[in-house]
Amino acid sequence: MLLLLLLLTGLHPTFSQQKTRLNTGWEFVRQDLGGIWEAVRPVGAGNPESVPLWDKVTLPHCFNARDAVDPDVNYYQGPGWYRTQVAMQNPYPGGRTLLHFEGAGQKTDVYIYTTKVGSHVGGYDEWTVDITQAVADFQKTDVYQKQFKGQIPISIRCDNSRDLEMIPSDLSDFNVYGGLYRYLNLEYQPAVSLSRLVAKAEVDKAGKAGTLTVKAVLPETVAAGSAPVLVRLLDPRGKQVAQYKGTLAAKPGEQDLHQFAVKSPRLWSPDVPQLYTVQVTVGTGAQAYQQSEKVGFRHIEFVEKGPFMLNGKRLLLRGTHRHEDHADVAAAMTEPMIRQEMVMMKQMGVNFIRLGHYQQSRIVLNLCDSLGITVWEEIPWCRGGLGGPVYQAQAKRMLTNMIEQHYNHPSIIIWGLGNENDWPGDFPEFDKQKIRAFMTELNDLSHQLDRSRYTAIRRCDFCKDIVDVYSPSIWAGWYRGIYTEYKEVSRKEFEGVKRFLHVEWGGDSHAGRHSENPDNALAKITAGKGADERAGDASLFGGSARVSKDGDWSETYLCNLVDWHLKEQETMPWLSGTAYWPFKDFSTPVRPDNPIPYMNQKGVVERDFTKKEAYYVFQSYWTVQPMAHIYGHSWPVRWGDEGELKMVKVYSNCEQAELFVNGKSYGVKKRNSQDFPAAGLHWNVPFSAGQNQVRVVARQGKQTVQDEITFRYQTQKWGKPTKLTLEKVAEANGLTTVEAKLFDAQGVQCLDAASWVEFSLAGAGKLLDDLGTSSGSRKVQAYNGRAIIRLEGKPGQTAVAVQSPGLEPVLLTL
Fold first, then answer.
1. What is the pLDDT of residues 504-525, one digit of tens each?
2. Which end of the chain has fewer CB atoms at under 10 Å, N or C?
3. The Glycoside hydrolase family domain covers which part of the protein (predicted)?
4. Structural domain boundaries in the chain
5. CATH architecture of the domain covering 723-813
6. Maximum Cα–Cα distance for the chain, whole Å?
């Protein structure tokens, strides 16, 4: 953790001018206005002009913080307005005042008072609006002093309405969110400043000869002239290793600054992510403009018909995916939330991430640089087919912006051009040749903008020869086939392309649901017919047998699937890498029937960062810090016959482990990654009816780590659920936790019951629902015959109820 904290100090300050995040003082209304005047007109309390009523919010803010996972509605797609008032005074004579948007969804219009100053289409790339003249003009008016008391009114209209001529498609398996869901900054720049600093760090395969090429891009508004420029290069410890002094021509566009030769640079890698700093100062004294960028020297190569090489050595890419989505805020994740998520990934052992399926926050990329996580970043051309000129222009513009805005990040190794572009539906025409032609245009554009990185797509077989790296759809053991076919299927796909990388694999798991016989569904599956996802496979209805439809969605099954994949990946020397889909559960409008409605539940953590059991499977294969985790921390009741031998699995990266059940040792086992499951750390042991304690002591050299769980073992058999109960089980931090349970006619808990249960509340307080988690949803499938939810309530004034189809509802008064 100390190392991680030290690494985090290397986060990039991309702009070093006077910049302020505009987080507070905002009002919001989730509907359209009749016009900009309705946002700024004088309003008297209680008068008709006060309608519509505005809510106070802070930024980042998303339209769909709650309704994205509301089980009873379609999430809102339409316009919404934000407004605030800000005191502005640019300290630089002749300087520029900018609003810098780090991302806003999906179409945005910006106003200063009643003057429209800028617009943007695209929910994920950064953009700026120059408000210098509009502010100056407004400050000359009477209303500036009389109505707004010397402040500048800013009004912003965001719109995430459905639009076929816009990317991403609304057929995508994620929400197309609306709002100011990334940070918005007020920035003051002097008269001569940079709109972008380009820093290209290169090194030869041997890591001996490094070159740093520095270029400056100036805005169109810069006045003609010249200014002194100073470029400094600092090593990872902050020591200056080179500098250049010269003169910068003040003219719009890109120009070369300097090229440094760096002998034997310290190399960037996931294990030691060494970052150099490029500092550029334009001008002198109080009018000086300064900008800093972090860069890393590394050599990358995807070997044709072979693995991935970093700095001349093979690196197996051990990856996952990220959507910008979180409980209670949706896309509006704060910087601390993002940092927590990325550190959790690193602690799981990740060295690679695919950012799906759009350009993500600069905060994410800075963390990838600092933590040592290689990146595939892509534009949101996702599903639906191919639109017309407006659609295609947006895709090219977003590809250009993504590459230019994130060009300097050493973590990025791949630019993604599309995802599932073989999926029709948005247009009457689905022409593969036109899609191929446009994919070729994007591929050429990417290489024109950046020749140092690779291009890639996932799942569009008829375009796989266009890009540098291709990822087919392989979902062995979930959408198709069984998981033991994984290596065979992968090898076949590998042989059909120039460079193979497998992104997106895994399966859904309902957090808290466990199974004594998780692989039962595999008996229904016909092997040998491939493992690629096909049309309709994600549906829970109809079609051929598949685990995604016929399995139990238990964490137990997912752990077995993950365990097998990771075991096999260690025996595939030709493999460049893989990326599990995804790291965290996320919301989606196309899965209303999942155990948590509108949630894609394939994450190894829940939408609120609660770790599922599969997190520890990855840790046991991918990390070196000694760890041990007994499967079943969220499994309060196991079941079986009296005296029956039950499996206990321990996920650990240690050399050996000893298991104790109710104080008795069941022996020491040595770890062997090819001994499935749990790399040989599995024991078959008897449990006692009632409470049981299981403890493991794992050893790695002289280091020892331990883990322990307790649970109840139930031997009584049960029938179908006939009774529902509800009781208060915890109270802490002002929150009450209630638990619903399902029992049969004899009063035996139905431990495999997956019935739908729905909570509701009356009186004072509120349910903590619409969070998209197994314990934060008012409508949810039971996990092992139970379900919990938390609420705010007052004794005697709050009643909570639960109901399940065919059973008598239950009411509990606090």
1. 999 999 999 999 999 998 988 8
2. N
3. 730-809
4. 18-188, 196-301, 316-622, 629-714, 723-813
5. Sandwich (2.60)
6. 89
The CATH number of 629-714, from 3.30.460.80, 1.10.8.110, 3.50.50.60, 2.60.40.10, is 2.60.40.10
* Residue-wise DSSP of 281-317: EES-GGG-EEEEEEE-B--EEE-TTS-EEETTEE--E
CA 713 to chain centroid, in Å, comes to 37
- 12-60 pLDDT, tens digit per residue, is 444 446 899 999 999 999 999 999 999 999 998 888 888 999 999 999 9
The pLDDT, as a whole number, for residue 16 is: 43
Overall CATH class of domain 316-622: alpha beta
- Rg (the chain; Cα; Å): 28
Q: How far apart are CA 591 and CA 588, in angstroms?
A: 6
The pLDDT tens digits of the residues spanning 355-407 come to 999 999 999 999 999 999 999 999 999 999 999 999 999 999 999 999 999 99
Instruction: Tell how strand 79-86 and strand 276-282 pair up.
Output: unpaired
Q: With contact defined as beta carbons under 8 Å apart, do 257 and 246 qualify?
A: yes
CA proximity to 105, closest of 54, 154, 173, 156: 156
Q: Quote the CA–CA distance of 814 and 728 in Å, as a whole number.
A: 8
Architecture of the domain whose range is 18-188: Sandwich (2.60)
420 part of the active site: yes
Q: Do domains 629-714 and 723-813 have the same CATH topology?
A: yes
* CATH 3.30.2290.10, domain 196-301, yes or no: no
Q: Is the peptide bond before 307 cis (omega within 30 degrees of 0)?
A: no
